Sequence to fold (100 residues):
Amino acid sequence: MAPDRPLTLADGSVIHSDAEILGGIPVFVGTRVPAQTLVDYLEGGYSVDEFLDNFPCVRREQVNAFLERATHTRKPASRNSSASFRTRGLSFELWLRKTS
Fold:
C-alpha cells in the first residue's frame, strides 16, 4: 500500500464511484475494494479485523468512517425485523444512493 494513497475525497467521503473503476461500483477511496464487500463480511459474521486482514489496502480509518456514516444515516429497523445492514431489503448500492 502506498503511504501517499488518499484515504478520503476532498469532501471527506471514504467511498466513491467512478465509471472507470469496477464499472462504477462504490469502492473505498484509493482502492478497488467494493464497499459492499465490507457489508457482506459483517453480515456473514466476520469482524472488521478479518476484513482488514483480507483487504490490507483498505485502512481502518476508512472502515470506521464508513460504519459511522452508515450508523447515523440508516433508518432504524423495526422490532420484528432482523438488524441487517441491508435496511428493509434495499441493496447497499440503492441504500447508498438514497442516503447521499
Notes: Residues 78-90 have pLDDT under 50 and may be disordered. The radius of gyration is 14 Å. The helical segments are 35-43, 48-54, 60-73, 92-99.
